[in-house]
Amino acid sequence: MRAPLLAVHNLTKTYRSGGREVKGLDNVSMSVAAGETIGLVGPSGSGKSTLARVVMRLIEPDSGTIAFGDENLGALSGKALRSMRKRIQMVFQDPSAAFNPRATVADVLADPLRIHGLASRAERPRRIAELLDSVGLPANLAARPVHAVSGGQRQRVAIARALATEPELIVLDEAVSALDVTVRGQILDLLVALQRERGLAYLFVSHDLAVVRAVSHRIAIMDRGRIVEAGPAATVVADPQSETGRALVAAIPRLHIPRLHTLQPHTSQPHGEASQNA
Ligand SMILES: Nc1ncnc2c1ncn2[C@@H]1O[C@H](COP(=O)(O)OP(=O)(O)OP(=O)(O)O)[C@@H](O)[C@H]1O
Q1: pLDDT, tens digit, for every residue of 63-107?
Q2: Would strands 37-41 and 218-223 be described as parallel, antiparallel, or unpaired?
Q3: How much distance in Å is there from the Cα of 53 to the middle of ligand 1?
Q4: Which of 136, 174, 239, 243 pairs with 106 at a CA distance of 20 to 30 A?
């Protein structure tokens, strides 16, 4: 059996605020294979963002393990962690929050090239044009202030920035949730096309099961910090086994289901269960 690209085991994270304890993650185990999209869906507060941030090492779990390829990602620090950050990138719901308000599109794309030493100053304009092209944007957008481009274009810039380090996994946290329906469909199409071209894996986090179903090979449903159900996307949507799953399926607006892609993982068929605790 092929080893998963990302595998987390028994992750727990308890938040303490104002004398109250909230279980952000309660013994979560799941994996993502190379070239595969795992959709992580659940109601507000179910722990999706916590899991995404723990995978990115933006939040430390209380216990549990995170493996990426052969590396014990949870134990890395310093230079080794910085080097690992090239292999896993993240795209947020609102990329503008992460962009310097005065930055141009070129500045945003130059950052990862500079930080990770991926292109000399002289090479950067050509590399930036290539990155823009890979997300369907014209090279002349580079000179525009990033705040002056449309929401859809800004999200394409965020994806291009993630691609700059040639990652194997991109964690997308509500990455299309703020976009209107037409633009959302275009970005989903782009993500699927990039996956096919590059064999990228996605951990696709969303509260919207219809969107998750459109792009995911497997779906894991979270509720109150636990994965309550996981399986092939079509099976989970057609026959949800958990109460949370049934509620999410019932909430899919019948007239607004995005076009279903016929998904073929870039590499061989993904294996295993999304969750050992489901
Ligand atoms: N920094 C924090 N301090 C205290 N509690 C937190 C913190 N971050 C998250 N929580 C709590 O942990 C639980 C899981 O939150 P999380 O943001 O991971 O869920 P989510 O599924 O991503 O929700 P949403 O879709 O609303 O972002 C929630 O009850 C939330 O209130």
Answers
A1: 999 999 999 998 998 888 988 889 999 998 876 777 788 899 999
A2: parallel
A3: 11
A4: 174
Write b or e for each residue in 52-76: b if 16 or more Cβ atoms lie within 10 A of its Cβ, otherwise e: bbbbbbebebeebebbbeeeebbeb
Helix (H, G, I), strand (E, B) or coil at 202: strand
Cβ neighbours for 115, distance < 8 A, ≥ 6 positions apart: none
Dist CA 243 CA 15 (whole Å): 25
* Average of per-residue pLDDT values in the chain: 89
CATH architecture of 6-251: 3-Layer(aba) Sandwich (3.40)
pLDDT band at 267 (very low <50, low <70, confident <90, very high): very low
Q: What is the pTM of this model?
A: 0.90
Residue 141 in tokens: 């957008």
Distance 47 CA to ligand 1 centre (A): 6
The interface pTM score, or ipTM, of the predicted complex is 0.97
The domain locations on the chain are: 6-251
Instruction: Give pLDDT, residue 258.
Output: 52
Q: Tell me the backbone φ, ψ of residue 276, rounded to 5 degrees.
A: -85, -15
Please give the sequence-ordered ranges of beta strands (E in DSSP) within the chain, or none if there are none.
6-17, 20-32, 37-41, 63-68, 71-72, 88-91, 169-173, 201-206, 218-223, 226-232
pLDDT value at position 278?
Answer: 37
- The Å distance, Cα 251 to ligand 1 centre, comes to 21
Residues in contact with ligand 1 by the CB-under-6-Å rule are: 15, 17, 22, 24, 42, 44-50, 207
d(CA 34, ligand 1 centre) in Å: 28
Handedness of CA 128, 130, 131, 133 (dihedral sign): positive
Locate the DSSP E strands across 155-259: 169-173, 201-206, 218-223, 226-232
> What percent of the chain lies above the pLDDT cut of 70?
90
Distance of CA 77 to the CA centre of its chain: 22
